[in-house]
Design goal:
single chain, 1512 residues, mainly alpha, 100 helices, 73% helix, flat
């Protein structure tokens, strides 16, 4: 201890060698672990302080001492914490900056040990040492790099440090060093990554830097730690589904390799856990199994010594077994082996035994869900495995899975045999308070007891108590499954008593009040146990009757049926009959007897029959219509006279009671029909007995519920036999009986088969009161179409027509009309009149409805329409307002049929039309539909529109279209579409709600409604007042243009949209919403749709530049160009041309249009002028077609010309247009007869000539004659203007000037342009002449062609007569420019002086005084300068023209050019003056002073000119 203190003192001595020796000694002492704690207390602080300022060796030894001390620290980490708390990190960070490998190694090792303390980890991550630590990781020294990586791995053990570490890109660094070939380096790097991956945010970074590839290399390492680190990384990545795809693609093989037997357990545990997580992903289960995952899982599950690995292996199998595609392959690959071993050979004391069994149970349950696996599993002993699992664990999950497995296996009860142990296991599972467990166990029992022997076994093995106890479960599914099992068990006679004896009634009664899913099964159980008579009293005593009555009122037919069956069983015991009645069962039972469900009627009737046997019930049963004692008396065989009287009285009573319909059911159930038949057929029966018997039979057959039984009980044969009876009353009621029987579909044919038809026809033709009933029978027989042929063959129709005064005959004819094949025959042979009479005179709504129905059917045959109208059926229909709604339906339907051929006639019948409108608004859907349909048919004729509107038809359409019935609003929309052909109705639709509804129908799923909507919108769209609403709901209109909509609808909708696009107010809004739809429409293969789409776009493009730009940006050009392909009509060409012209008005579109190929398209359009278009469907004749095509041609050419002119106005396009034959196209368009086309063409030609490259090409390509031709058309100002402007542009190029003269342009310029009355044309011509004159070689040609004279004339004329000051200045300037160029030639100077007494010279003199244009003055001065340079005798003429004073004026003008020209002119005049007269004149006119002033002018050139003039 004293040594350490002394060493500490020496450390503080200011001597480097002493310090080094002291630190060396301390380092040696620190090598002993036993000294570490004692040394650390005194030396840590001095050492840290020393490191910051000592010599390098001392620094290294100090850090080494700290490293040794921190490596021997105890579990409390006191030394490591002390080093950090005393500022060691900052000192070490600073020391790491020295380039000394040994020092860096010691620092890295020291930090590695310091970082082992949990308290230091976050401090290090936040300290300055982290930066040098990352640098140390990248050291070339392996130990330094290893320790530094180890330190980072240690710090990364604290998840709170991960964000701080990643700020230094630690994940990338660690992944990089995972690829190192040195084990000790990539081991630490992989450990660090495994720690960093504890934070999920690192996963994505790790995957992005290809960490899985590096991890795979680590996984293949022989180093156990590396393997563990790799497995741990996989384990931490696998729980996150987002990582699964990458792991399956790049990491799966690595995980598999780490899961095999040749690695340590802890490695396998981590890798297996990762595999289990991957197996849970439903997307990769099949791939997982196929790539070896299933094999590894089986290996893991086969582990005999390691329960953890076995559990994980089973867990993997469990996940895989969920996939239906793997259930069979897993079994085929031997999964049952390890699965059964794991389930049956679990040793006590195994860690987490429940988890292992849970995996087994779940996997078994999943696999046996497949039917193919069930037999295999059964053979391999799955029962033992499942019972073992249940017996060894009380885990809810295990037991639920076991129950599920049993449930699946029980689905094959005949193949998979359950023994006592399995059944008792199931009974044990029934008692679990877990819904899935109890439910599946009960379902399994229910499946198994399908086998009769199992029903007995369940009871003997005490299965009933837990089942009955499950009835009280809080889970509905459990109660439902229990009832299912119990009603099957109750099929066994012994079990019926056992269920009751085991207190099953209480739960069953309670279940009867539950929803149908439970109560249905409970009712079935009650039904089965009630079939045992010994249970009857117990069931009633237990209070089951109210629950059964409640079931009778259930909405579930099966519940009602089994409740009735139960009551039927109970009512067989006399002691229960009164109780059942008092429980309120009569009313539900009677209601059940009226049901459609046959079984319900059957058992309710049987129950009523039983209840009727109780004396105290009879009054109630009488009220219900059942009197059994009367039937017993009638059936008696006693032949005594007293009995005969009783029979007559009884049969009469029965007849009276049978008049009450409620008694018919009990009578039939008591088998009265054979008794009645017997009474009718016995020869010993009196007439009265026969009469009353057949009358009772009539009443029974009049009831649809009892008719079938009465007929099949011999009633049909009895009734047929009575047709031949001598008693007319018997014959009459026989006819009535047969008429009633004939109301049954099955019986009608039987009546004819049994030979009743001839006798009925005979009786119908008779004269007594029987005939009306015979006719009624025939009428009912006629409702069966199969009887119609026989009726007509035997002459029944003729008989019926002859007896048409009888309403029954009309009924029969009406029934015959149900056969479509005989409708024409009925109308032709006089069948309409009886029906009309029946409809008119009958007071019974049913009869009238039958007549109207027949008339409606007859109206479906067009051949009958004329006859119906001849019978004045419209007047009849006009009186149907106050009839039953069924009649109104038939009237509406009949009118709908008639309106197909005689709509105008219906419209002309005011009362009928008014009634039809009323029918259309009756409130009955069927009547409304047919009524509206009839109105829609009628208004297909435009001439009916006014009368329909006057009678409220239009209003009816507007109201009906708002209906919620699709059939009604479909017809209403059709009617509106038809009515809108009359334009003055438009405002009514537009101002009402109908327009909005029509727009809604555009979105309807019904194709007809969409078409009607489109048609109506198309007709309305011609009225601009409709546009606001239509545009406001433009999406409705656009929905009609979708590709899946039929063509005719799209055409109508496209037409409507085109009309809306023409409205200036909405063009912008429509363009914003519909431009893409229109472009898609333009892509259609249908030419008519192309035309409409392009027409709409054409209208929109008229609005604003924004629209034009949007249309082009939306891609309208390509479809428009494609529309010009072969087969396109003139209309398509016209719309596309107009679209191009409008779009070209926006300068922003010019370049896109040209680059999209519009020029070629326009050239093609113009060329089509020489051909002809395909015929248009809208043309009615040849002449119209020719006129229409001519009109189209003119419009197309005009729009093409405008488009070309607009596009040619953009300099960027000019060269392209020219090279794409645009100029020739413009020349061709210039030949058009339309003045507007000519003007646009001329303008385009003019624009093209202004481009530098084009104007050269025009001459080069010999395109100039076109311009020359334009210039020679004297009567057309626009052509001349174009030609002159073009000449002006062409003349700018020097190379063009000779060609202009050679090709005759100069003559046109001089003879036409320069002398034209239009000053603009003059200006262009003079400009061109001046440009040509600027070429020295061409000046003589210009002079010889009269250029001086023409220019002089133009200059004088515009100066004298023009009002446009600016244009005059321009013309005068170019005139003087031309003269200045020409005056360089002698010929021109002579002509300037001599032409018309020197008028040119005078004009030049005047122009020199024009002070508002300096250029003109300069050119004029130049002319004077040149002219003065002439022979002496000509100079005198110049002087005589008073030219000197203007020259003096110019010599004084403050412009250098003017003064120079004036000095030269004066010099020229003075030179050669032999007599001095001119010189004298020059001096006299004051020229000397300005010349002297010019001598001193700064400009050297001016001084020279002035000196020359003075010398002259």
């Amino acid at each position: 201890h004293n040594v350490v203190s002394s060493l500490v003192v020496i450390l503080q001595v200011d001597d480097a060698e002493c310090q080094m020796n002291a630190t060396f000694a301390m380092n040696k002492l620190a090598m002993n672990r036993d000294n570490s704690q004692a040394i650390a207390k005194e030396v840590i602080a001095p050492l840290i302080k020393l490191i910051s300022h000592c010599e390098m060796n001392t620094k290294t030894l100090s850090v080494s001492t700290l490293r040794r001390l921190s490596s021997f620290d105890n579990n409390d980490n006191d030394i490591r914490i002390t080093i950090v708390s005393d500022g060691g990190l900052e000192v070490l960070a600073k020391a790491a900056s020295f380039d000394r490998s040994e020092l860096k190694r010691e620092i890295a090792a020291c930090l590695c040990y310091i970082s082992l303390a949990d308290a230091n980890k976050r401090v290090i991550a936040k300290s300055v040492v982290l930066e040098p630590l990352t640098s140390l990781c990248q050291s070339t020294d392996r130990d330094t790099s290893r320790f530094a990586l180890g330190a980072i791995a240690n710090v990364a053990e604290d998840a709170s440090c991960h964000h701080l570490l990643q700020q230094k890109n630690i994940v990338h660094l660690l992944v990089f060093y995972m690829r190192s070939r040195h084990v000790n380096i990539h081991r630490e790097a992989s450990r660090g990554i495994s720690n960093m991956l504890s934070s999920s945010f690192c996963h994505e970074i790790f995957l992005q830097c290809n960490g899985l590839k590096a991890l795979h290399l680590i996984a293949k390492s022989d180093d156990v730690e590396c393997q563990y680190n790799a497995a741990l990384c996989y384990h931490k990545l696998a729980p996150y589904v987002t990582n699964h795809e990458a792991l399956m693609m790049e990491g799966f093989l690595g995980i598999l390799s780490l899961s095999k037997k040749d690695v340590t357990k802890k490695v396998r545990l981590q890798a297996a856990s990762a595999l289990r997580d991957l197996a849970s992903n439903h997307e990769f289960k099949v791939i997982f199994a196929r790539e070896g995952g299933l094999d590894v899982a089986m290996i893991l599950a086969s582990e005999e010594t390691d329960a953890e690995l076995k559990t994980i292996g089973l867990g993997i199998m469990r996940h895989l077994s969920v996939n239906t595609r793997l259930k069979v392959p897993m079994v085929e690959n031997g999964v049952p082996g390890p699965l059964f071993d794991a389930a049956t050979k679990i040793e006590d004391g195994v860690v987490d035994q429940d988890d292992l069994m849970s995996q087994c149970a779940a996997t078994l349950a999943n696999l046996v869900e497949n039917v193919e696996n069930q037999s295999i599993f059964y053979q391999k002993g799955v029962m033992a495995a499942l019972t073992s699992l249940v017996s060894r664990s009380y885990s809810e999950g295990i037991r639920c899975d076991a129950a599920r497995a049993f449930c699946s296996l029980s689905s094959l009860p005949d193949k998979i045999i359950f023994g006592e142990e399995e059944f008792r296991t199931l009974f044990e599972l029934l008692q679990e308070d877990k819904e899935e467990c109890g439910r599946d166990a009960a379902l399994a029992v229910g499946n198994l007891v399908i086998v009769p022997n199992n029903r007995v076994m369940v009871a003997e093995w005490d299965g009933l108590p837990p089942l009955i106890q499950l009835l009280d479960s809080r889970f509905e599914s459990c109660r439902k499954a229990t009832c299912r099992a119990l009603y099957r068990l109750a099929l066994c006679e012994e079990n019926k008593l056992r269920i009751v004896d085991n207190s099953g009634l209480k739960g069953l009664i309670k279940a009867c009040y539950e929803p149908p899913s439970v109560s249905e099964g409970a009712a079935m159980v009650m039904c089965n146990i009630s079939s045992e008579e010994k249970n009857h009293a117990k069931i009633v005593k237990e209070g089951a009757l109210p629950s059964l009555v409640e079931l009778l009122l259930s909405n579930n037919s099966l519940c009602r049926k089994y409740a009735a069956m139960t009551l039927c069983n109970l009512s067989s015991s006399e002691i229960n009959q009164l109780c059942i009645t008092k429980a309120g069962s009569l009313s539900p039972l009677v209601e059940m007897a009226k049901e459609v469900e046959e079984e319900c009627r059957r058992y309710s009737g049987m129950t009523l029959c039983n209840l009727a046997s109780h004396r105290r019930n009879r009054q109630a049963m009488v009220e219900a219509g059942v009197i059994e004692p009367l039937i017993s008396m009638v059936a008696s065989d006693n032949e005594s006279s007293c009995c005969q009287e009783n029979k007559e009285a009884s049969i009469l009573a029965l007849y009276n009671l049978s008049a009450n319909e409620s008694s018919h059911g009990p009578l039939i159930k008591c088998n009265i029909c054979p008794v009645l038949v017997n009474l009718i057929t016995l020869s010993s029966s009196s007439v009265d007995i026969k009469r009353h018997a057949v009358m009772t039979l009539c009443n029974l057959t009049a009831n649809t519920q009892t008719r079938c039984s009465a007929t099949k009980g011999g009633g049909l044969q009895a009734a047929v036999s009575l047709l031949k009876d001598v008693d007319s009353e018997c014959r009459k009621h026989a006819c009535i009986c047969l008429a009633n029987m004939a109301n049954d579909n099955n019986t009608r044919k039987q009546i004819v088969v049994h030979g009743a038809l001839p006798k009925l026809i005979e009786l119908a033709a008779g004269s007594d009161d029987v005939k009306s009933y015979a006719i009624a029978a025939l009428g009912n027989l006629a409702t069966e179409e199969d009887n119609h042929v026989e009726l007509l063959r035997r002459g029944a129709f003729r008989t019926l027509v002859s007896q048409s005064h009888e309403s029954a005959a009309a009924f029969a004819i009406a029934n015959l009309s149900s056969n479509e094949s005989v409708l024409r025959h009925i109308g032709k042979e006089g069948g309409i009149t009886p029906l009309m009479n029946l409809a008119k005179i009958s007071l019974d709504d049913h009869s009238r409805c039958l007549a109207f129905t027949a008339l409606r059917r007859l109206a479906t045959c067009r051949d009958n329409h004329y006859a119906l109208l001849q019978e004045d059926i419209l007047t009849l229909f006009a009186q149907s307002r106050n009839t039953a709604f069924e009649i109104r339906r038939e009237v509406a339907a009949c009118l709908c049929s008639l309106s197909l051929s005689h709509g105008k006639q219906i419209a002309s019948h005011q009362n009928c039309l008014r009634e039809l409108v009323f029918l259309s608004r009756s409130g009955d859907d069927e009547a409304d539909r047919h009524g509206v349909g009839a109105l829609a048919n009628i208004c297909e004729d435009v001439s009916t529109h006014e009368v329909i509107h006057e009678n409220g038809g239009l209003q009816c359409f507007m109201m009906s279209v708002m209906h919620d019935n699709i059939d009604i609003y479909r017809e209403a929309s059709r009617g509106l579409a038809n009515m809108l052909s009359t334009t003055h109705f438009h405002s009514l639709i537009i101002n009402g709600v109908a327009l909005g509804r029509l727009l809604e129908l555009a979105m309807c799923d019904d194709a007809e409604c969409r078409y009607h909507s489109a048609l109506a919108l198309r007709k309305l769209s011609v009225d601009e007042s409709s546009h606001k609403t239509m545009v406001g709901r433009l999406s409705c209109v656009l929905s009609l243009l979708e590709q899946e909509i039929d063509l005719k609808t799209r055409k109508q909708a496209a037409t409507a949209l085109r009309d809306m696009c023409a409205n200036e107010r909405f063009k912008r809004e429509i363009c914003t919403k519909a431009v893409n739809t229109l472009i898609n429409l333009a892509k259609s293969d249908r030419i008519e749709l192309q035309a409409l789409a392009n027409a709409s776009l054409r209208h929109l493009s008229l609005h604003s530049s924004r629209n034009k730009i949007d249309i082009v940006e939306a891609g309208a050009l390509a479809p428009a160009i494609r529309c010009l392909s072969r087969g396109a009509t003139a209309d398509v060409h016209c719309q596309v041309a107009g679209l191009f012209a409008n779009l070209s008005d926006a300068r922003e579109n010019h370049v896109p249009m040209v680059t999209s190929g519009v020029i070629v398209a326009i050239v093609t359009l113009v060329k089509s002028n020489s051909g002809s278009f395909p015929s248009s469907n809208n043309c009615d004749g040849v002449g119209d077609t020719e006129n229409s095509q001519d009109s189209y041609m003119k419009e197309i050419r005009q729009d093409c010309a405008r488009a070309l002119a607009n596009l040619a106005s953009n300099e960027d396009n000019m060269a392209i247009i020219y090279h794409q034959d645009g100029l020739r196209c413009l020349f061709k368009l210039a030949e058009d007869s339309t003045i507007t086309t000519q003007r646009y063409a001329a303008m385009g030609c003019q624009f093209l000539a202004s481009h530098p490259d084009v104007r050269i090409a025009i001459i080069r390509d010999n395109a100039f004659p076109g311009y020359l031709k334009l210039g020679q058309q004297f009567s057309k100002l626009h052509f001349q203007s174009c030609a002159m402007a073009s000449f002006a542009s062409l003349s700018v190029e020097e190379d063009n000037k000779p060609a202009l003269i050679r090709k005759g342009a100069l003559d046109v310029l001089l003879s036409v342009g320069a002398l034209h009355e239009n000053f603009k044309i003059r200006a262009d011509a003079v400009f061109a002449i001046a440009n040509i004159a600027n070429a020295p070689a061409l000046r003589v040609d210009v002079v010889q062609s009269g250029g001086v004279r023409v220019l002089t004339h133009v200059g004088v004329d515009v100066t004298t007569n023009a009002n446009d000051g600016d244009l005059v200045i321009v013309i005068r300037r170019d005139v003087m420019r031309g003269l200045s160029s020409l005056s360089t030639t002698i010929e021109a100077r002579d002509e300037i002086i001599t032409f018309e007494h020197g008028i040119a010279l005078k004009f030049a003199l005047e122009s020199s005084k024009v002070t508002n244009d300096i250029e003109t003055q300069r050119y004029a001065a130049l002319v004077l300068c040149n002219v003065c340079n002439i022979s002496s005798h000509r100079k005198e003429s110049i002087v005589e023209s008073n030219a000197i004073r203007p020259l003096v004026f110019l010599a004084r003008y403050p412009d250098a050019v003017l003064r120079r020209c004036a000095a030269l002119a004066l010099a020229a005049l003075g030179l050669g003056d032999l007599y001095g007269e001119i010189k004298k004149r020059i001096v006299e006119d004051g020229a000397l002073k300005p010349l002297l002033d010019m001598i001193v002018f700064p400009n050297k050139e001016i001084r020279r000119c002035a000196a020359l003039a003075i010398n002259a």
